[in-house]
Amino acid sequence: MPEPTPLTEAVDRLADRFRAMPQSRLLAAVPGHASRATAVLALARTLAAVALALEGRQARPFPDAGAFAAGDQLAVAGHDLAAALAALGPAAGAAAGSAGGGGDSAGGSDGGSGSGRGDREGGPVVLPVPLGSLPAGGPADGAAVLAEALAAVAATAELCA
Q1: Alpha carbon distance 55, 110 (integer Å)
Q2: What is the distance between the alpha carbons of residues 149 and 48, in angstroms, rounded to a whole number?
Q3: DSSP β-ladder status, 139-140 and 125-126
Q4: CB 96 within 8 A of CB 143
Q5: Treating both helix axes as pointing N-terminal to C-terminal, what angle do 70-88 and 142-159 enclose, rounded to 10 degrees?
Q6: What SS3 class is residue 55?
Q7: pLDDT value, residue 125
């Protein structure tokens, strides 16, 4: 599993841009979103959902704390995902070759036992939401999740420039 530090750095850069952005730019529409703030909130919600899945936890609502909190919400979600990726360990990156043999990941809804992450350690996780080219419901290993998360942050940064 590659080091998730580039993800935290990219998320922090984008979050800082949003923390310093004037209200007129935060609330201005961008393609596909009512505002830059909602675009970043959508990214934060995706990163948070993937982080919860990596931890073997059920998705939960991610609140909209308002345009001025969008940068902070992105930072928290991005750091949560980086921590979840780091907790997967080095074996997670090697799981890409075995993503098709879904023995452990097929039980993605474990009835809410709460500690499903232990069953997925080192193996692919079933994504609850799409992340870049990774579809919802499909298996993904840690390296692929990291690469797609970085791409999503870069795409949102470009969209909101």
Answers
A1: 13
A2: 11
A3: antiparallel
A4: yes
A5: 160
A6: coil
A7: 79
Q: Rounded to 5 degrees, what angle do the CA atoms 62, 38, 141 make? A: 60
Give the pLDDT of residue 114.
38
Report the distance separating Cα 145 and Cα 1, nearest Å.
10
How far apart, in whole angstroms, are the C-alpha atoms of residue 117 and residue 48? 15
120 residue type, one letter: R
pLDDT, tens digit (0-9, with 9 covering 90-100), for 82-123: 999 999 876 544 443 333 333 333 333 333 333 334 344 556
* Secondary structure element (H or E) that encloses residue 13, with its range: helix 5-20
* 134 in Cβ contact with 127 (< 8 Å): yes
CA triplet 81, 125, 70: central angle to 5 degrees?
25
